[in-house]
């Protein structure tokens, strides 16, 4: 996952806003393919939030979180998703979801 410009270019190109966090289409397709090809259980660790509705600032959420979650769920391989955010006034560690096998 990256913080990207509106055109999905890497943020180090100077065209970015940290509040636009998303998994680019190319990386989402890579994730889908990796999860499809493997057979082992998977645990995901992510920094930004995939579960809107936590009551936190909107800029902390992955903009295409629904698409990402759908890929994870459809794979039937993801056992758990862990997220953490440590900022000046906020420490958050949360298990987003666990899929029973």
Overview of this structure, please?
The structure is a single chain. With 101 residues, the protein is an alpha+beta fold. The chain is 24% helix and 28% strand. The protein has two helices and five strands. It has helices at residues 25-37, 65-75, and strands at 2-3, 21-22, 42-46, 78-87, 90-98. The strands form two sheets. A three-stranded mixed sheet has the order 3-4-5, with helices on one face. Helix 2 links the parallel strand 3 (42-46) and strand 4 (78-87).
Find the count of extended strands (DSSP E, 2+ residues).
5
Which spans have pLDDT < 50 for at least 5 consecutive residues? 1-5
Give the averaged pLDDT, no decimals. 75
Structural class: alpha+beta
How many strands, what sense, and barrel or not for the largest sheet? Answer: 3 strands, mixed
Strand content: 25-35%
Highlighted features:
alpha+beta; 3-stranded mixed sheet; disordered N terminus; globular; 101 residues; 2 helices; 24% helix
């Amino acid at each position: 996952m990256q913080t990207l410009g509106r055109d999905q270019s890497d943020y180090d190109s100077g065209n970015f806003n940290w509040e636009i966090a998303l998994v680019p289409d190319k990386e989402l397709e890579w994730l889908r393919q990796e999860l499809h090809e493997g057979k082992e259980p998977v645990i995901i660790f992510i920094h930004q939030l995939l579960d809107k509705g936590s009551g936190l600032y909107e800029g902390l959420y992955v903009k295409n979180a629904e698409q990402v979650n759908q890929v994870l769920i459809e794979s039937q391989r993801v056992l758990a998703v862990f997220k953490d955010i440590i900022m000046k006034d906020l420490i958050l560690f949360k298990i987003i979801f666990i899929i029973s096998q």
